[in-house]
Design brief:
alpha/beta, 2 domains, four-stranded antiparallel β-sheet
Length: about 300
């Protein structure tokens, strides 16, 4: 079948799971990024991620649409020029280009999956949870994820221990304590007449837990992206979509995709993926290049 668009997770799929959580280090390898730029010139390339837009923006400028924080916020992007990504002596970046990227003028449309008031209420609960978890579990890193619009509402957090040497130990010893503490704190807040729709996302093997301000998943994010790309459905022509992911939270999107491909980026992980195909991370660039050279006709792996 001929692929009409590629939708992909970011963390663990386009960059390795074990990458340090650092704005400068958690980057897509150059060979993968290069072919994604080439692909995006011909078909839409879209990101479906638990990361927020502030994190993803400068790392995924080849993308047409970004569905962030597990679909809580979806943004349609004016496609950047490739020279905006990396300055070179031959193709320097202008100050106007830098300004445009910093103030997000590239965003054509931003859609929240819930109204501001509901999100704000759950955000306050999420913020309190994050503060209390940080005090009680000082060995973890907590990443805060905000919406991109002017209010910058906290919509998700990740409790992360991938910086530790022994992921399995933390998984077995720390995660049960974390889950119990989160549930108890959530129950306490509800008893204080502070009802909320907090959603906890755990994983079979990955070294982190995600908590979201509202119920969300990548199946919803997948549908939102499709609705925002008019080229996907045109004149009732059958279109075929490919989805790339690496963890259990990609399963709702795997189930919707015409071609579902799990990416294995770390030998320490063995997630339960509902995908039809798998590819090792070090083979991803070659697979994408072949797909591009074959005019996006996919015949298997």
């Amino acid at each position: 079948m001929q692929i009409s668009a590629i939708l992909s997770d970011y963390d663990g799929t386009l960059c390795p799971t074990g990458a340090v959580r650092n704005q400068d280090e958690n980057l897509i390898p150059a060979n993968v990024e290069e072919i994604l730029w080439d692909i995006s010139e011909k078909i839409p390339v879209c990101i479906v991620s638990s990361k927020d837009f502030a994190f993803l923006h400068n790392k995924t400028k080849f993308a047409n649409v970004l569905s962030c924080i597990l679909g809580i916020e979806t943004l349609v992007i004016s496609r950047h020029k490739k020279t905006m990504l990396t300055a070179t002596d031959q193709e320097p970046i202008s100050s106007d280009m830098i300004l445009q990227c910093q103030d997000f003028r590239c965003v054509k449309n931003s859609i929240l999956s819930v109204d501001d008031a509901t999100l704000q209420h759950s955000s306050e609960v999420l913020s309190q949870l994050a503060e209390e978890i940080a005090l009680e579990f000082n060995e973890v890193y907590i990443e805060h994820k905000f919406t991109s619009h002017s209010k910058k509402i906290l919509a998700g957090i990740t409790i992360d221990w991938r910086h530790t040497d022994d992921w399995k130990y933390f998984k077995a010893k720390l995660e049960p304590q974390l889950r119990k503490a989160i549930i108890e704190k959530q129950r306490d807040l509800q008893q204080q007449d502070r009802p909320n729709n907090i959603q906890i996302q755990t994983y079979a093997a990955h070294p982190f837990i995600d908590i979201y301000a509202i119920k969300c998943d990548k199946g919803i994010a997948y549908d939102r992206i499709i609705s925002e790309i008019p080229t996907i459905i045109e004149d009732n022509t059958i279109r075929h979509l490919m989805y790339l992911g690496d963890s259990e939270n990609d399963n709702p999107a795997f189930r919707k995709a015409d071609v579902s491909i799990g990416v294995k980026s770390d030998e320490r992980l063995n997630p339960n993926l509902e995908c039809k195909y798998t590819v090792k991370f070090d083979k991803l660039a070659g697979f994408l290049e072949k797909l591009h050279n074959d005019n996006f006709v996919f015949s298997g792996l």
